[in-house]
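Re-run requested by the PI after the first attempt was lost when the workstation crashed. Everything re-entered from the original request form. Ligand of interest: LLP.
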Amino acid sequence: MGFAYRDGAFCVDGVPLESIAQQFGTPCYVYSRAGIEHNFREFSNALAGRDALIAYSVKANSNLAVLALLSGLGAGFDIVSAGELARVQAAGGDPRKVLFSGVGKTASEIRLALQSGVRCLNIESAAEMERVDVVARELGCRAPVAFRVNPDVDAQTHPYISTGLKQNKFGIAYAEAEALHREAALKRNLELVGIGFHIGSQLVDPAPLAAATSRITRLADRLAGSGIAFAHIDVGGGIGIRYHDESPPPIAEFVSAVLREFVGRRETLIIDPGRAIAGDAGILLTRVEYVKPGETRNFLVVDAAMNDLLRPGLYDAWHEVLPVREADAGAAEGTYDVVGPVCESADFLALGRRLDARSGDLLAVMGAGAYGMVMSSNYNSRPRAAEVLVGGGIAHLVRRRESTDELYALETIPK
Ligand code: LLP
């Protein structure tokens, strides 16, 4: 299962990446079906016997083939836009297992979600509560809602992906939660079905997740005193993976830290992992164009760039880079920055790596299955990469490479 060398050739689930590059070109995202299934099962096994829903966070990797695969395994979906809802539906996902999060839902997105019959809208402000109530009244329905409460717990992660602190834009303030719940309970077009939080992403320690769960269950208990009971508690996502030297405990340990706070509770447990399902199940395959020695640093100029994988440039994220043809013992390695063709100094995939590489060699950028393709852009008028899903020994093209005329297909020149 997964990514491994076989007779010196780097393979995904037994299929050589060299042949995938030949068939589909580079840059190219390659996902392992077995890897995604394995990660999903880590969650479902850890939750076995518990009333629970694993709502995969679509933003991590929203390719239809990935969504269809997860839907087939029984996943629900955490979405943040009408676009993600449309993807879930196009992939055959069940809207009744969809949770709609996000601070800025428009009235038309709320309408669409209610008409599609989503399981829950996660409300992130008093103003949004009013808007959902109005839209539901117009539609003549009761909107299933849950407040996303900001537990003010430090997730100890990169500030750009930390979401559960007072200073973050997400969720309603813990101190205001009781009053807002009482207000919502009086609204005829809202039905409080749950409560939730999400403290941030790439957590490497279950402790903050457990602390936030405990704060929310205590809040739920206080609200039960005022006659407000919930069908579910949503603990968000955020479970981290190993990119470099971080060592997050296994998924099961994160889940048991949450389950300890759920002992004796009757609510359905909802968890919305993204990265922990897709992250290590995908790579970005790229080819070296030039070896460029410099005065103070040496560069491998590759055909993938920050527009394909933004994480290094945006968060200084570390992704392992491996040669597709395994280096011989005693190979003449150099130290290189792996950079793309985009005109920005933040256009790097990796810095200061020991590699033995020549022009034409293929490299695999690891851990690119989540927040890779989904964050790509057409910057520098670069067509977006192809996506390939390997399953059962076959490489399926699940998104073809964009063509250059598609880059400006939506544009017009005024007469
Ligand atoms: N639930 C909610 C409400 C979220 O906002 C997120 C992610 C998740 C679940 C899934 O989190 P995960 O399990 O994937 O950590 N672009 C960044 C990550 C942004 C995450 C945003 N929210 C990165 O590349 O690291």
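Saved to the shared folder this time. The first helix runs from residue 17 to 24.
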